[in-house]
Amino acid sequence: MERKQIFKVVFFCITIISAFLTSCSNKSNQEIVGKKVVCDSLLLFRDREFSLVSDTIFKRTSILLWIDSTRCSQCELEHLGNYESFNNLCEKMLGKEGRMKVIISLSEKYDLGLLINDVQYLNCLFDPIIDYKNLFPSVFKCNDRLLLILMDGRVIKYYQMENNEGDAYKMRDCLDYLRQMYKE
């Protein structure tokens, strides 16, 4: 077999495996739509202070980015700057309470004190929230980075985010979905 043909076969196999894995993860995430976001394990960092989150934070329409800290939490926090212009557009469309909220689930690998320290020094325009009991992975039954649209505390639409150029299309689709909801 020629080297070029081997490359094509390997590329084809990788493409098939990748498509299969993507479809598997999407099937497991179908359970996400309709889920209620429960706030009994959340610490909100706002105005340089932490406070427990109440259910009222997700009234009406909310945009929520959930990060499962099984990935490198510091790395994830560094990527949050990629969402600032998206956050600004959400806030413009939905008002001040419509700004994006970022929930970071705490894993056993990451110390709560260290995560609190990292969040305190995070300079972002949106609201960072710590899932200090690590309940969100069991609620969403996955270990992903998800961008969620909530209506009255329930997920109505979601996107799996990858921290790559494809996320821009997902954020644009999210904004288009919000525009349709509010007929802007």
**What is the CA-atom radius of gyration, in angstroms?**
18 Å
> Order of strands across the biggest sheet?
2-1-5-4-3-6-7
Could you tell me the CATH topology label of the largest domain.
Glutaredoxin
CATH class of the largest domain: Alpha Beta
In total, the number of domains comes to: 2
Overall geometry: globular
Mean pLDDT, as a whole number?
Answer: 76
Number of helices: 6
Please mark out the parts with pLDDT under 50 across 5 or more consecutive residues, or reply none: 9-28
**N- and C-termini, Cα separation:** 58 Å
- Helical coverage, percent range: 40-55%
Structural class: alpha/beta
H and E string = HEEEHHEHEHEEH
Report the count of strand segments: 7
Query: What name goes with the CATH superfamily of the largest domain?
Result: Glutaredoxin
CATH-scheme architecture of the largest domain: 3-Layer(aba) Sandwich
Kindly estimate the percentage of residues that lie in beta strands according to DSSP: 15-25%
